[in-house]
Amino acid sequence: GESVGLHLPTLSVQEGDNSIINCAYSNSASDYFIWYKQESGKGPQFIIDIRSNMDKRQGQRVTVLLNKTVKHLSLQIAATQPGDSAVYFCAEMGMDSSYKLIFGSGTRLLVRP
Amino acid sequence: NAGVTQTPKFQVLKTGQSMTLQCAQDMNHEYMSWYRQDPGMGLRLIHYSVGAGITDQGEVPNGYNVSRSTTEDFPLRLLSAAPSQTSVYFCASSYRGKTQYFGPGTRLLVL
Predict the structure, then answer these.
(1) In this complex, do B33 and A101 lie within 8 Å of one another by their Cβ atoms?
(2) Residue in chain B nearest A8 by alpha carbon
(3) C-alpha distances in angstroms, A43 versus A69, A96, B90?
(4) Which of A2, A101, A107 to mutate to test the interface with B (most CBs of B within 10 A)?
(5) How many Cβ atoms sit within 10 Å of the Cβ of residue B104?
(6) Using CB atoms, which residue from B31, B45, B103 is nearest to A43?
(7) Cβ contact (<8 Å) for B43 and A44?
């Protein structure tokens, strides 16, 4: 189930199922978006990115979808594995030269064996 | 390449003490940044630098200073630590802001 406030939203999936993690971004002028995976006690790890001139990009077992109309980003993980259990963050970057990344609040993915 | 390295891994400070969190990267990246991450939350940008000699403020700069005298190093200084600065601090670097690579983090507790 989901919780709000100080607790991260949690997505629980069965091993082997597909996972979809959603993110609403804040700035309509953002032109670059990244998904990061963060395992407990570690720094964020790059998963996949997408530019605003695209609406879909695929990697190995992961797909990112971008809907600029509603400022929505999603990460799809195919055949979810126990090693996918982590917190996932989306981040957005604007078009200026500051290269500032603004992170979302994150979603915890739990994979049930 | 070692990537992005941070020292120390853990630190306990008393209120009012000062310290410097070290960050180094060996990828010749122009862009470096510091974030803090509080429990159950995302990362918030403290300061960033687009090149040696250039620094600027992020979302939460108060209480922190930075300098960038070399491309490789980007230290973060706490001049007078406060309990509100208890957090996990991450340094990141990238080539022109794309695909930022993060260090392992420094866990700071201010009593």
Answers:
(1) yes
(2) B40
(3) 31, 26, 7
(4) A101
(5) 17
(6) B103
(7) yes
Beta-sheet strands, E only, within A1-113: 10-14, 19-24, 32-38, 45-51, 56-58, 62-67, 72-77, 86-93, 101-103, 107-112
Q: How far are the Cα atoms of A108, B10, B98 from residue A93, in angstroms, in the given order?
A: 22, 30, 9
Contact indicator for A57, A49 with CB cutoff of 8 Å: yes
Chain A residues with beta carbon closer than 8 angstroms to that of B74 = none
Coil, helix or strand for A82?
A: helix
Indicate whether B98 pLDDT > 90. no
Beta carbons of B91 and A43 less than 8 angstroms apart: no
C-alpha–C-alpha distance, residues B71 and B40, integer Å: 32
pLDDT in tens, A46-93: 999 999 999 999 999 999 999 999 999 999 999 999 999 999 999 998
